[in-house]
C-alpha cells in the first residue's frame, strides 16, 4: 500500500520501479484482501474511504478499444463494478479504475449494523487524479525494478479527456 498519492500512470511506473505491477485485482478474494489492508488506516469507523479511492491496475484501452484491460495490456476476466458503473460521470474521461469502499445506499439497508460495514467495489475515475495505490509482486520476488512499463495503449488519456471537456465549450463559443 502506498503512502504517497500519484496519478494512475505514475502509480504504474512507481510499482515497476519496485519490481511490481499496479495490482491486477482478478478475483473477489483478492479484492477483499486489498480492502482489508486498506481498512487498516484508510477507512473511518463507518467504512467510508478517508482517501479518494485506491488505484488498481485496470484501465480502459482508449487506443485500441479493447475494453477494460490490466496495465500489462491483457483483458480483464473479472470485475467488481457496482450496478450502473462504470459510468464515465458527466463524460469527463473516467478511464482508470479505483477501489472504493463506500456503502451504496441502494444496495445495503440503512441499519446500525450496515453502517459498520463497507462494500468494496470498483469505480471508474479520472486518471490524473492523485490517489493511493497498491502494487502486487509475486511472493519471493526481488525488488529489482521492472523494465519501463509499456503504456502506449493509455497514452491518450489526458488528450482525450481534455477534448471531451474543451470541445463542447469551444463549439458553444463559435456557434454563438
TrEMBL record:
Domain of life, per lineage: Eukaryota
Ranges for domain C-type lectin: 1-136
PROSITE patterns membership: C_TYPE_LECTIN_2 (PS50041)
Entries under PANTHER family matching the protein: C-TYPE LECTIN DOMAIN-CONTAINING PROTEIN (PTHR22801:SF63), LITHOSTATHINE (PTHR22801)
Protein's UniProt name: C-type lectin domain-containing protein
Species of the source: Oikopleura dioica (Tunicate)
Amino acid at each position: 500500500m502506498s503512502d504517497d498519492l500519484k496519478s494512475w500512470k505514475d502509480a504504474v511506473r512507481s510499482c515497476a520501479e519496485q519490481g511490481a505491477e499496479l495490482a491486477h485485482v482478478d478475483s473477489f478474494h483478492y479484492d477483499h484482501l486489498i480492502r482489508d489492508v486498506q481498512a487498516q488506516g484508510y477507512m473511518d469507523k463507518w467504512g467510508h474511504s478517508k482517501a479518494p479511492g485506491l488505484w488498481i491496475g485496470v484501465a480502459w484501452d482508449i487506443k485500441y478499444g479493447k475494453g477494460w484491460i490490466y496495465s500489462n495490456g491483457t483483458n480483464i476476466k473479472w470485475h467488481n463494478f457496482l450496478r450502473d458503473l462504470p459510468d464515465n460521470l458527466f463524460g469527463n474521461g473516467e478511464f482508470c479504475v479505483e477501489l472504493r469502499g463506500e456503502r451504496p445506499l441502494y444496495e445495503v439497508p440503512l441499519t446500525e449494523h450496515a453502517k459498520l460495514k463497507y462494500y468494496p467495489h470498483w469505480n471508474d475515475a479520472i486518471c490524473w487524479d492523485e490517489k493511493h495505490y497498491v502494487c502486487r509482486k509475486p511472493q519471493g520476488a526481488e525488488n529489482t525494478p521492472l523494465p519501463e512499463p509499456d503504456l502506449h495503449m493509455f497514452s491518450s488519456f489526458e488528450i482525450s479527456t481534455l477534448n471531451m471537456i474543451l470541445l463542447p465549450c469551444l463549439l458553444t463559443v463559435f456557434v454563438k
